[in-house]
Automatic annotation (TrEMBL):
GO cellular component: membrane
Protein name according to UniProt: Peroxin/Ferlin domain-containing protein
Start and end residues of each Peroxin/Ferlin domain: 70-131, 141-178, 666-728, 734-768
A Pfam match: Hyd_WA
InterPro entries per record: Beta-propeller_rpt_TECPR (IPR006624), Peroxin/Ferlin (IPR006614), Tectonin_beta-prop (IPR051513)
SMART domains for the chain: DysFC, DysFN, TECPR
Domain of life according to the entry: Eukaryota
């Protein structure tokens, strides 16, 4: 959750949750977060995870926000021993490393020291445990070597041999941060330093979990807090920055009065006593202290007394009370502002502001100097970045508050919510929400659903042969005529010709061309063509290798045609014979669209399953990157931004009942447009003409040829975030060069030799709808979600893998509470790259160290895992961290590493030889244990042929029975099966 932080006149800090669509006023109430009576706060600097407060006496306090991910630090101690002929293994010689040390052996460790309580806010999580990784240690946790001298990780052996005279093992222990949402003073060793100003930011230039925290000391020096990471929120030490030098006299300047840093980039600016501004240049992840100080201009050379920096904006307050604004330009390759030394300030307001703060998206929050009230700047957007006017935020407390400081830098707010200015908006919204959740309204909807289901059961066997109107005419079909363009291929090129479509529930006719048997229509899926701009509809027909494609000039005509076709497919599925397993598949295309595939159809004549390529599918609204389905028809998905969503269980792809779902769904996508040029004699590089090897002058990533700086988007739900296209590197000469149009391009290679060059333009777009069937589940940024195929005591196990490698278990998930209730972390010793839920009993994981581990799901909070020895086969299984899957059924696991599949029998400890498949991208299993493979096509393996080698540790595998779909796998990026 994001907050706006404030400090009241009495020194008590406050915070206000920021939500774009709160349900009621209780979700965004102003909340005091007091410290102990001995502290009086004067300023707060906050990141998305931590807030830092400055006391009036100069002390710094820290508040770590509650999180679903535990903050843990791993402590490792190496136990070293030497072999003695009579007494066997004992402590090392005095000339060796100490008995307890670090990995290098240079630092002595004392176990008694680690038995004491950790620093404030931390507590020990478990007793000492031995590392028992079977790939590196024996069953007692030891590894062996000839000598300690020069010993590194490659010199140690997991088995003791005759020439081994030393051994070591690793004792591990974790300490956990336990004082969330409480103010804690920095470590005692920092008592000697007192401060007068704080600045926190740099989230986008630092590694994940790291931030930049600068402080102005009472001695006039500027310090940076080093070592701040996710699991070390208070950092390790203070590093002093070089002092500012007067450019005219080269004398050091001690009188710095204020610091400001961008919440996203590394732009640090300070103000001196005489109102001049200086920037610390060169701040980056590699050089967090920066390189040099440079003086920058002030608004019309006036003295500055207030300053704040956003991502693309800077605001100043001068000594005469004037408020100024200037736009910032960003070099995206270097991730820094480029026009700081030549800012063009414009006057915004006469006076009335004393403290000002910007969000990450440059929205303005401030403290009014006269009445000391909170104010916001309304009307800030891409067309008017300085906004329109300052308006007072409404505080609904019982007593009047006077404010002295504000911090909005941790918020991603892109516009000012209306409820900040008028609380009555929340009251009206709450009344609507209460109405929608009334018992009688829900009961009516449930009754309608039951009646609708019964009607389908009765009507699906009724065949209507004739339709009569009021005049007694028979055999009148209700046709819909739609104009379209038929996409055909001739001479290797795509061509279009105008046609009229005549469609009803029983007829699909392309006038003058052909009639399509509606019983043969399998699916329809939309597309978008940029050059020329057309809205496409592809219709897949049984026994035809390629879909029939139509182009429309407007989106509504395409959607109308697709709705009719989907109704034809829906009608066929609901009236066909289906088995009792309810098998289904969910897929996501490379454009993010979702489809549901019915795998449960049966051939009524032969009573056998229909081939995968002949199954029917329906489009489901939404935009996602990955998806999974499980017990009780629960479906969860992750969008491109890492947000998690759950499908409302009342939504049925086969139902025609129009339920009203009003969930808000958003997503964000970066469009990349490549500009190509070729070398011409005597003219240098010129604009590329025509096409060569499928490449034209302008190419949209994953979408082919595109117009220059196109503005059209795939649907009405997409809008542009950025006002215009910009170079990815913010450098006009940021070209990549190659000698082949379809070859590998490299930056700066062969500027005088490369025949072809290209550069990348980028522009961000936002997906947004308020009528979604998907409900958002709050939590950290997610990489993938898995839903158990089997129910467990009236609940369904749902586990997510966050983008930084943590596992989270969603509690309380069932059909009634389909979004669950809360999160519980599944603690692991190392970050996870892939995982698999075995029914609801076990979880299998691949760590970033390529180790396969597993545990039962009875006690998820205990860090006790079992290892699978992957050294058993004669050839090691190499697991990639970025592109790997693990799935399986019972004791059989399937491990995918890039385009290679391994079959592992975890009970008999056998592993197969690699089974390569073309373009293999994903492997999943269904409830029956069948594995589905996504490659150039989609294949379901019903049975494997497994043969053991003589060593009985390695096997060879090949599919014995396979069901393959040849016609809808190429554009699919994710699959899920039930």
């Amino acid at each position: 959750m994001e907050f706006i932080w404030m400090v009241a006149e009495d020194g008590i800090p406050w915070r206000m949750p920021i939500l774009e669509e709160p349900k009621d006023a209780t979700q965004v109430e102003w909340e005091p977060v007091p410290c102990s009576a001995s502290y009086s706060i004067r300023q707060i600097a906050a990141s998305s995870k931590t807030a830092f407060a400055l006391d009036r006496s100069g002390r710094i306090l820290m508040l770590v926000l509650p999180t679903h991910i535990a903050l843990r630090q791993k402590i490792e101690v190496y136990v070293n021993q030497r072999w003695y002929p009579l007494v066997k293994w004992r402590r090392p010689l005095p000339t060796d490393r100490s008995e307890y040390s670090d990995e290098s052996g240079k630092l002595r460790r004392d176990l008694e020291y680690f038995e004491d309580s950790p620093v404030d806010g931390w507590s020990w999580e478990e007793p000492w445990r031995t590392n028992r990784d079977p790939r590196s240690f024996d069953d007692q946790g030891w590894q062996y070597a000839i000598t300690f001298l020069g010993a590194n990780s490659t010199n140690w052996d997991r088995q003791c041999k005759r020439h081994h005279f030393v051994r070591r093992k690793i004792l591990r222990r974790h300490m956990r941060f336990t004082q969330h949402d409480k103010w804690i003073e920095f470590s005692p060793e920092d008592d000697s330093k007192m401060f007068v100003e704080l600045a926190c930011g740099g989230a986008e230039i630092m590694e994940d979990g790291e931030i930049l925290l600068f402080a102005l000391g009472t001695d006039g020096n500027i310090y940076r807090r080093a070592g701040i990471r996710t699991n070390i929120p208070n950092g390790t030490e203070w590093c002093q920055l070089p002092k500012i030098q007067n450019p005219s006299t080269n004398e050091e300047i001690d009188d710095v009065t204020l610091l400001a840093i961008s919440p996203t980039l590394g732009t640090l600016i300070c103000i001196t006593w005489d109102g001049k501004m200086y920037q610390r240049k060169g701040i980056s992840c590699a050089i967090p202290n920066g390189a040099i100080w440079r003086q920058i201009p002030t608004p019309k050379n006036r003295a500055v007394i207030g300053l704040t920096i956003g991502t693309e904006a800077i605001w100043c307050i001068t000594a005469d009370g004037m408020v100024w604004f200037a736009r910032l330009e960003i070099d995206r390759r270097k991730m820094e502002h480029t026009n700081i030394e030549e800012l063009n300030f414009q006057e915004v307001a006469k006076s009335g502001i004393c403290r000002i703060s910007l969000t990450k998206n440059d929205q303005v929050f401030c403290v009014g100097s006269e009445k000391e009230v909170m104010e916001v700047r309304t009307g800030i957007d891409s067309s008017e970045p300085s906004g329109k006017k300052f308006e007072v935020m409404k505080y609904e407390g019982n007593e009047k508050k006077r404010w002295i400081s504000i911090c909005a830098a941790s918020s991603n707010l892109s516009n000012i919510p209306k409820y900040l200015l008028d609380p009555r908006v929340l009251q009206a919204r709450q009344e609507i929400f209460q109405f929608k959740n009334t018992f009688w309204r829900k009961q009516i909807l449930e009754s309608l659903q039951i009646s609708n289901d019964k009607s389908w059961e009765i009507m699906k066997d009724v065949k209507i042969e004739k339709i009569s109107d009021d005049f007694g005419c028979e055999n009148v079909e209700r046709f819909r005529k739609i104009k379209a363009q038929l996409v055909v291929f001739g001479d290797g090129q795509r061509q279009m010709r105008s046609v009229n479509l005549r469609i009803s529930e029983a007829v699909f006719e392309i006038e003058g061309e052909r009639n399509i048997d509606c019983a043969m229509i399998l699916s329809s899926f939309s597309g978008f063509q940029r050059l020329p701009q057309k809205y496409l509809l592809h219709i897949l027909v049984k026994n035809e290798a390629q879909p029939i494609s139509f182009a429309f000039t407007d989106e509504s005509s395409r959607n109308s045609c697709q709705e009719i076709v989907d109704n034809i497919i829906r009608s066929y599925i609901t009236t066909s014979a289906r088995n009792s397993l309810g098998q289904s598949m969910w897929t996501i295309s490379n454009s993010g669209s979702v489809r549901w595939h019915c795998l449960a159809e049966m051939d009524p004549k032969f009573e056998k399953e229909i081939p995968l390529s002949d199954t029917r599918s329906l489009t489901v609204p939404g935009n996602f990157e990955s998806i999974d389905c499980g017990a009780n028809r629960l479906v969860w998905a992750v969008n491109f931004a890492g947000d998690l969503y759950s499908l409302h269980p009342r939504f049925d792809p086969l139902s025609t009942l129009d339920h009203t779902f009003e969930y808000r769904q958003t997503d964000e996508l970066r469009h990349e447009l490549y500009e190509y040029q070729k070398s011409a004699i005597f003219r240098g590089f010129v604009t590329f003409q025509g096409q060569q090897k499928g490449v034209s002058a302008w190419m949209s990533k994953n979408e082919g040829a595109a117009p220059q700086f196109y503005s059209g988007l795939a649907s009405k739900f997409w809008t542009w975030i950025d006002a215009e296209w910009r170079l990815e590197d913010s450098d006009e000469d940021s070209w990549e060069y190659s000698n082949e149009i379809d070859g590998n391009f490299e930056i700066g290679v062969g500027k005088g030799e490369g025949k072809i060059r290209r550069r990348c333009w980028i522009r961000r777009a936002k997906f947004e709808t308020n009528k979604s069937v998907w409900a958002k589940v709050e939590g950290p940024s997610v990489k993938v979600v898995r839903v158990a195929k089997v129910e467990n005591q009236n609940s369904v196990t749902v586990i997510t893998l966050t983008r930084d490698g943590h596992l989270l278990l969603r509690l309380g998930v069932n059909r009634e509470n389909f979004t669950g209730s809360s999160w519980s972390q599944i603690v692991t010793d190392s970050p996870i790259t892939a995982f698999h839920i075995q029914k609801h009993e076990k979880i299998w994981c691949i760590t970033t160290e390529s180790l396969i581990i597993w545990k039962t799901l009875v006690d998820t909070e205990q860090d006790v895992w079992n290892y699978l020895d992957m050294n058993l086969p004669s050839r090691k299984v190499v697991v990639t961290q970025k592109d790997a899957d693990i799935c399986g059924s019972n004791d059989i696991l399937y491990l995918r590493s890039r385009n290679v599949l391994f079959r592992i029998d975890s009970a008999n400890l056998t592993c197969s030889d690699p089974y390569p498949m073309e373009n293999l991208r994903q492997a999943v299993v269904n409830l029956q244990g069948q594995i589905c493979l996504l490659g150039s096509n989609i294949s379901i393996v019903n049975e494997w042929k497994v043969m053991l080698y003589e060593d009985k540790k390695t096997t060879i595998i090949q599919p014995r029975s396979m069901n393959r779909a040849m016609n809808f796998g190429k554009s699919i990026i994710c699959i899920a099966m039930y």
